[in-house]
Design a protein that fits this description.
single chain, alpha+beta, 23% helix
Length: 254
């Protein structure tokens, strides 16, 4: 049995998905998830049961451009043919973009040293029903310069306890952000956050709190007070899942 495990190929797959129709990435007993679909379809492709390990456990409604998964398999399909072959099996809202054979010790989650998330807001008084599952529709004017000032305070190694939702399994709330900023193009605002790891709902809680500042509800000084307090109760509401995207997972340190 041990010998068989060592002969299995260790495949790294980059996956994109529209999370609108799924109850998150991680397999659950009574809800459809991205992991469940991937395991079912990739098992069919490989001709044997496979278990998917994901780099990030995205929540219900969260999307991904660059989720990374690993599977171990004796399936003989050539690595370069996996994306095209998977396309014929997977639903249209999930795609395998790339496949690479990796050393046995590589793991999608535990080998990762960083992730980049983006968050999108439609800042307009006119709602867009077409975009309802892909942005946070926010109708009050937002000050991008003020929000960038707040985001700049988060860069570096800090205790992010103020932005950690209840239910988190993380014992240590200290994380490092390498960059955090937002840009406006017409009525679209996009946040980009790159860090070595993220707490439960951390990006959405940061965005919810920064938007309060951008809307004039809070000052920069009060934002710093919230951040320094490490008290989730002082921070803003969690931003909707619809605007969040896992952009990329990194395996080399910046």
């Amino acid at each position: 049995m041990n010998k068989e495990k060592h002969t299995k190929r260790n495949l790294k797959l980059t996956v994109a998905y529209d999370g609108s129709g799924y109850h998150g990435f991680q397999r659950q007993l009574n809800s459809m998830t991205v992991q469940q679909v991937l395991e079912e379809k990739l098992s069919s492709l490989m001709g044997e049961p496979v278990t998917v390990a994901g780099a990030a456990r995205t929540d219900a409604g969260v999307h991904a451009y660059g989720q990374v998964i690993t599977i171990r398999t004796n399936g003989a399909i050539p690595t370069d043919r996996i994306p095209a072959a998977a396309r014929g099996l997977l639903p249209k809202d999930i795609a395998v973009l790339d496949a690479t054979e990796m050393p046995a010790e590589f793991h999608a989650r535990f080998s990762a040293c960083g992730k980049m998330y983006i968050y999108r807001i439609l800042n307009s008084t006119s709602p867009d029903p077409i975009l309802r599952n892909y942005v946070w529709q926010f109708d009050r004017p937002l000050d991008v310069e003020a929000m960038n000032q707040a985001l700049g305070l988060l860069v570096g190694e800090h205790n992010f306890g103020a932005f950690q939702s209840a239910g988190s399994s993380a014992k240590n709330p200290v994380r490092t952000l390498y960059s955090a900023n937002c840009i406006r193009k017409d009525d679209r605002i996009e946040f980009q956050v790159h860090g070595n790891g993220f707490l439960y709902h951390m990006v959405r809680n940061v965005v919810g709190t920064v938007v309060n500042l951008g809307a004039g509800k809070n000052s920069l000084e009060y934002f710093l007070e919230i951040f320094s307090s490490c008290d989730r109760k002082l921070a803003g509401a969690t931003a909707p899942a619809t605007g969040l995207y896992l952009k990329e997972v990194f395996y080399k340190r910046p």
